[in-house]
């Protein structure tokens, strides 16, 4: 996986928002938004569809990222939280 596909986040809040399924899900924090993007990239590159592997990789990459690199995910998470509260 190429870090350029992850940091900063190349997708918008609209693309990362969870689909509605009747009940309002818990709002996503910045790490969960990042993990969702990582799963998307892994699926595109047919790297892995094992959630445990993706979560472990997400944790490793996230912990090594700078605050500046994480900022795009924080902004998306804030937007998703705002939308969540409007429901």
Automatic annotation (TrEMBL):
Keyword S-adenosyl-L-methionine: no
A Gene Ontology term for the protein's cellular component: nucleus
UniProt DNA-binding residue ranges: 24-87
InterPro entries linked to this entry: HMG_box_dom, HMG_box_dom_sf
Domain named HMG box: residues: 24-87
Entry's Gene Ontology molecular function annotations: DNA binding
Domain of life: Eukaryota
Stated name of the protein: MATA_HMG
Organism of derivation: Rhizophagus irregularis
The gene coding this protein: HMG45
């Amino acid at each position: 996986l190429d870090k350029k596909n992850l940091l900063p986040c190349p997708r918008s809040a609209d693309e990362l928002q969870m689909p509605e399924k009747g009940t309002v899900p818990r709002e996503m924090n910045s790490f969960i938004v990042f993990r969702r993007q990582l799963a998307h990239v892994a699926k595109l590159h047919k790297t892995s569809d094992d959630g445990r592997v993706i979560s472990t990789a997400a944790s490793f990459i996230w912990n090594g990222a700078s605050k500046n690199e994480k900022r795009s995910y924080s902004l998306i998470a804030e937007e998703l939280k705002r939308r969540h509260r409007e429901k």
